[in-house]
Amino acid sequence: MPWLCRDCLRMGEESPGPAACACLSRRVLRHAELFALTVAHVDCDAFFASVEKRDRPELLTRPVVVGGGRRGVVAAACYVARTRGVRSAMPMFKALRLCPDAVVIRPDMAKYAAAARQVRGLMERLTPLVQPLSIDEALLDLGGTAALHRAPPAAVLARFAQEVEREVGVTVSIGLAPNRLLAKIAAERDKPRGFAVIGRAEAASLLAGEPVTLLPGVGPALARKLEAAGFTRLGQLAALDAREAARRFGEDGPVLAARARGEDDRPVTPARETRSISAETTFEADLSDMAALEAPLWRMCEKLSRRLAEKGFAAAGVVLKLKTAGFALRTRHVRLPSPTLLPETLFEAARPLLAKEADGTRFRLIGIGAQPLAPAAEADRGDLADSEAPRRAARWRAMEALRARFGEGVVMRGRGLRE
Amino acid sequence: MRITVERAILFRALAHVQSVVERRNTIPILANVLIAAQEGALHLTATDMEIAMVEEVPGVRVDRPGRCTAPAATLYEIVRKLPEGATIQFDQAGGDAPLALRAGRFQTSLAVLPVEDFPSMTEGKLPHRFSLPAAQLRDLVDRTRFAISTEETRYYLNGIYLHATESEGTPVLRAVATDGHRLARVEQPLPEGAAGMPGVIIPRKTVNELRKLAEETQDEVTIRLSDTKIRFEVGTVQLTSKLIDGTFPEYERVIPRGNDKVLRVSKKAFADAVGRVAAISSERSRPVKLSLDRNHLLLSAASPDQGQAQEELDQEVVQYEASPIEIGFQARYLNDITDLVEEQVEFRFADGSAPTVVTDVAKPEALYVLMPMRV
């Protein structure tokens, strides 16, 4: 059976491979398809926390949690903190209750972005087909690179993991598989500093016993729907043929069944398409009345407008996001009559959505997103019912130009004035 | 309450009022119809809190006056299924006693809800009053309602804007609707009494109910209104509706004045060609391109997966003297307008990207504006 040592990078075809490598490392991969698989999912381990530990080695054995103040959420928890039950996206107060001695560090996004760029740079030396999924995750397709690297993808990836540790100072976990779905699932299976392989041969049998929620995209709502129909394990879904799957679960049914069999023909596409752009803020203290909520909504609309402009997009629809004091998430969507970049138009669209939700419920967070996106060139052209839009857009651009030149506070809408 | 009424008369009245009742309702009383019998008169009322429809039912024998509410949909179903020519008797002892309905050997008893809970929409003064022949009212509605917007963000576009104004020095009653992509503007000579009326936006649902009622009569329709409500009296029916509380855009500004490239084309030839050419298109908006040259119009459409189609119209049906242009429109938007044109349709273009004015050569009182699309 093909084998590869992740430490000294020796490899071989003879079967069975040695129990430990000649270099005495036990980190030896063995898999029948090891040298044939080309799609990898790479995930940095506890990325923000790892970057902090790299810069402050005295914290190496301490539980480190990166996140904002008491009211914020955990952006990343190191593996020491994770042993105490701390998880990403957990509210900070809860994390501190589980782990009172945690070292809390405010996120330094610029620093993480720099580290992420370094990791990305190393990836791009392996293949042009790098698809970033988030700041610390990416998909790589190494198909056809074996001749260039004079090594199969598995060996190239093992060397890459060593390079990241040496040059960036953080560890990565790698999933290697025949497709994106299985690569992602593999990457989850061996963490941190892991390398897991799922081959074509065992994919279906390996997934069969897993819960349906293992599939990316199967959230609590879909899981409930599936369970109500009697489907709790992937094996049950995998058994459905396309027609039956469509009949039971609609147009997405056949894809769901294929995924449950470990089939996924989505290509790895570099430069992920931006699907939505948003801005959100957590309040210092919970807010419930409309007037109080409008102020942060307005500021988020201004922020979103700027982000859209920076990225060359306009909003063709608006998503209002609210989180209640009890952490229930509410999102409301409205389609815009025509795409916009203007904060006041975003605000006017979001305000009625907010008014419906502001029923006395206490909220801790408000956000606004642009979805779907449209090209910026199509924004604010006006129509028969709104011939003023181009002038409003010109006014906003003039204000932005003034702010860029003379500073943020030089001109603003009266609505943005704080008491 | 005890009354006796012919099935046919009651059926017609119920058909009117129950169409206002929303099928899905969170407030139970809104699913009910208010039945009010006084000496010599029966009134049926249904409402969804936005619209109230009150029908006076003639030819009813009232033995004992009274009022109650009963489920509108159920009552309508029952009356619909009773044999023609049946005589129906209602009997209700008052309070929350059930409503007994008898017709021949059939009898039923329906649960009622308290009359006091039934919302009244018909109160309040309506200081402005005028009347219009039903045919004129139909014309105002038919030539504008296709352009009413359904988008939720600009709620003030979800109706017909009715107002008194002047058109080249003549006082007119004008109806306007727009969804941003097209605009329809129709006017009639200002009826007596309408001069001081405020501009009002009549919601789409009210427009549709009104159109159904106006279909059945040739009489005058009396219109009463205030800033917030409007009432249409059509025969024995009174339709009262809230108005959309908003400001209609200043539409005059978007109606181009200087478009000088004039195309006149036979409506039938044009509409048929648009229909045929657009059939190739797989996009929802079905864009059709108009390429104009002297007395010559080429309509074309293309679809990346299905191919392309074109049709030529020449001087037999086309009059065009201006410089050549190319311009694109959604097929449906063209058809919505040509459907209203009798023989000759006139387009006035500025260029390929500016709003275009469309009129019926024989009916200059109706004007449409269309935004082009890129093709």
Assembly level: heterodimer
CATH class of the largest domain in chain B: Alpha Beta
Profile the largest sheet of chain A.
Answer: 5 strands, mixed
Overall structural domain count of chain B: 3
Count of folded domains of chain A: 3
> What is the number of helical segments of chain B per DSSP (H or I, 4+ residues)?
6
Q: Can you characterise this structure?
A:
With 419 residues, chain A is α+β, with helices and mostly antiparallel strands. Chain A folds into three domains: 31-201, 2-Layer Sandwich (Alpha-Beta Plaits), CATH 3.30.70.270; 208-213 and 220-260, DNA polymerase, domain 1, CATH 1.10.150; 277-417, 2-Layer Sandwich (Dna Ligase, domain 1). Chain A is built from 15 helices and 16 strands. Chain A has a five-stranded mixed beta sheet with strand order 8-9-4-10-11. In chain A, strands 12, 13, 14, 15 and 16 form a five-stranded antiparallel beta sheet that branches. A three-stranded antiparallel beta sheet of chain A has the order 2-1-3, with helices on one face. In chain A, helix 13 (290-311) packs antiparallel against helix 14. The N and C termini of chain A lie far apart (72 Å). In chain B, a hairpin with a 3-residue loop joins strand 20 (296-303) and strand 21. The model of chain B has no long low-confidence stretch (mean pLDDT 93). In chain B, the strands form four sheets. Chain B has a nine-stranded antiparallel beta sheet. An eight-stranded antiparallel beta sheet of chain B has the order 6-2-3-4-17-16-15-10. With 375 residues, chain B is α+β, with helices and mostly antiparallel strands. Chain B has three domains: 2-117, DNA Polymerase III, Chain A, domain 2, CATH 3.10.150; 128-253, DNA Polymerase III, Chain A, domain 2; 255-370, DNA Polymerase III, Chain A, domain 2 (Roll), CATH 3.10.150. Helix content of chain B is 17%, strand content 43%. Classes of the chains: A alpha+beta (419), B alpha+beta (375). Chain A binds chain B through residues 334-338, 348-349, 352, 383-387, and chain B through 149, 151-154, 157, 178-183, 249-251, 253-254, 355, 369, 371.
